[in-house]
Specification:
Blueprint lengths: L30 H13 L4 H11 L1 H9 L9 H22 L21 H5 L1 H19 L8 H28 L4 H24 L3 H33 L1 H26 L1
């Protein structure tokens, strides 16, 4: 018989392919063996996903350096881990927007902007793409924040950030789901989690670079400086795009109309009073 994955020759006694390592599947596809495969991959204690998730809290240094050093079977690889995180986040956003829209009212953190959540709908529509594009940007920020320390190159910083963002997203899935179920606003809890994430990434890099508390604080300040510069660059790019595609003029016109309506409403209130 031949391996269905790489066509290498197998014997009837082989349970795994000696060439590519794939499991030999002999049974017809049924719901039972699909569930067994899912359970084997994700629900048993020894699976790589659960092991990766728990170790990223206890000893993230072990997970990241293992992958960088070429150990690929002990933990989930960063792209697979990130894919699971994005899938969970996308599912969560779909459920919240469909069944809990009141939890995503942006006016809770942006005063005088009722129903402000509609302004960021495009981010949710393209959430996976936005998250993927952000990874190399975060990696650049990480590399620049630790300039002078040549322990990790850019690609290795990309691995670090991918693991960190995935860990944060998976944790967010559980924490925010519980919070929204208890009636907490999605954005308020999300901002709290973002602060926690900053501490987690600081802890992560402290472990990876073996830095003292003072050293990691200095690098954190440098990170905020890099982030500010990146935000300015992104803002300039966005402004240029708006100018060339006519979006800026539309925004100005919309703001004028909004102020005009507010002025009329205010005049009517004053007149009736």
């Amino acid at each position: 018989m031949e391996c269905k994955n790489c066509t290498a020759t197998l014997t009837s006694e082989n349970n795994y392919c000696s060439a590519c390592g794939a499991k030999v599947i002999r049974n017809r596809l049924t719901m039972r063996n699909v569930w067994e495969n899912f359970s084997e991959q994700f629900l048993n204690y020894d699976n790589r996903f659960l092991k990766t998730y728990l170790t990223m809290f206890r000893n993230p240094f072990d997970v990241i350096t293992a992958y960088i050093d070429g150990i690929r079977k002990r933990y989930s690889n960063p792209l697979s881990y990130f894919a699971i995180a994005i899938t969970l986040s996308g599912f969560q956003l779909f459920i919240l927007r469909k069944f809990f829209p009141e939890a995503m009212d942006l006016s809770a953190i942006v005063p005088n902007q009722p129903n402000a959540s509609v302004n960021v709908d495009w981010i949710y529509d393209y959430y996976s793409i936005v998250a993927l594009i952000n990874l190399p940007i975060y990696a650049v920020m990480g590399k620049l924040s630790f300039i002078g320390l040549k322990k990790f190159n850019y690609t290795e910083h990309l691995v670090i950030i991918t693991y960190a963002v995935a860990q944060f997203s998976i944790t967010n899935f559980f924490v925010l789901s519980i919070g929204v179920g208890l009636g907490v606003n999605y954005y308020i809890m999300g901002n709290v989690m973002n602060i926690i994430m900053m501490f987690y990434i600081g802890y992560l890099y402290k472990k990876l670079y073996s830095l003292s508390l003072g050293q990691i604080l200095l690098r954190t300040l440098l990170f905020f400086g890099v982030m500010l510069i990146m935000l300015i660059i992104v803002s300039i790019i966005q402004f240029v795009i708006l100018v060339f595609n006519g979006g800026l003029e539309e925004m100005i016109q919309a703001e004028k109309e909004k102020r005009g309506i507010s002025y009329i409403a205010s005049s009517i209130i004053n007149w009736t009073s």
